[in-house]
Amino acid sequence: MEFLEVGYNPWLVAMSLVIALVAGATGLTLTKDLSKKSVTQRKLAVALASVALGGGIWSMHFLAMLGLQMPILFYYDAAVTLVSALIAILMVALALVLLHFTRRSNRIIVAAGAIVGLGILAMHYVGMAGMQLCQPVYTTLGVFASSVLAVVLCVLAFSVAYQTRSTRNIVIGTLCFGCAVVAVHFLAMAGTNFIALPETDELGPLISNETLALGVILSSFVIFGTFLWVGSTYLIPPQYEPVPAGVAAIPDVGPIDDVQAVKPRPSPDFVSIPCERDGSKVFISAADVAFVRADGHYSQVYTMKDRYFCVWPITKAATKLLPAGYMQVHRSYLVNPSMVATFERTKDKGRLTFSGSNLPPVPVSRSRLKDAQTAFC
């Protein structure tokens, strides 16, 4: 058995990495702050994110394959190539449904990352099966190593991006996702050899590299366009928005009449909470806080991993955090909606739970039930 000599176009390899990173940034950004949106909006966002992430996996793979250089002409089976794209999109969709329509926990995050990793693998090997006039020959080590790397890197990407839904974590998660897609592809290719075949054995019509390039260009155009549309939100400064009517229930905030007052609404990323721990003063970003609980004339600040003492009374915390997007679900509790995993109603009360398994649930008072249902159901 004589193997073909293989080389790569370095420019197309570099572009494949860019595509993977842009797709990751687009998909992870589309799914940010979904707890604040309606079920229909969440479904639409998950669908778009699935196409962005799954389409990015497919585009990265075939852009890299366009850079594959061999001494023979080879083609792709159009039907198998289409199936490989559908596999990537559907596997990503399954992972995102688990993350956004079930109670999010560490186990769910790990499962979602593993599903996406397996989706990358399935897409890769199904896409390779569509090659005509040459046949890939795999090594056991190459398949095993790429499988482990796919699952580990995707679990890492989703663990970072979903433990705290901050811009910083989304950027880090994007880097992990892009590296996962590219590393899996080229590690798998490093363990793959090719032999020439005398005839084709296609299921559907054949497509050449030139035709495939058009499909990759089109999908990349859509991904880049969506990225620009989504990414532009990071460039928009804090806007003036109506203050929620619920603010009127907090004594130190002041009444709100029927024509709601207009005040600046800063992002939680730019609000810091002064805290104390072990005798030292620290400042915690409001974006990293799950909820704030009243503690007499002071308050307790809960992140996903730690609890801090804060000198602010709950009323002062409300004046700082409600305009930044927090919700008051109880007279003693302020919550960060982006951290909430589930809302459960029990008769005339309710409770909120968080993705961190060590965090206690937060009660929702009767007067706040309607607002909680609107925000989290």
Automatic annotation (TrEMBL):
Please give the GO cellular component terms listed in this UniProt entry: membrane
The chain positions of domain HTH LytTR-type read 273-377
Pfam families the record matches = LytTR (PF04397), MHYT (PF03707)
Residue span, MHYT domain: 8-195
Q: Which Gene3D superfamilies match?
A: LytTr DNA-binding domain
One example of the protein's molecular function in GO is: DNA binding
Key words of the record? Membrane, Transmembrane, Transmembrane helix
Give TM regions: 12-32, 44-68, 74-101, 108-126, 138-158, 170-191, 211-230
SMART domains in the record: LytTR (SM00850)
Q: Which PROSITE patterns has this protein been placed in?
A: HTH_LYTTR, MHYT
Name it. Carbon monoxide dehydrogenase
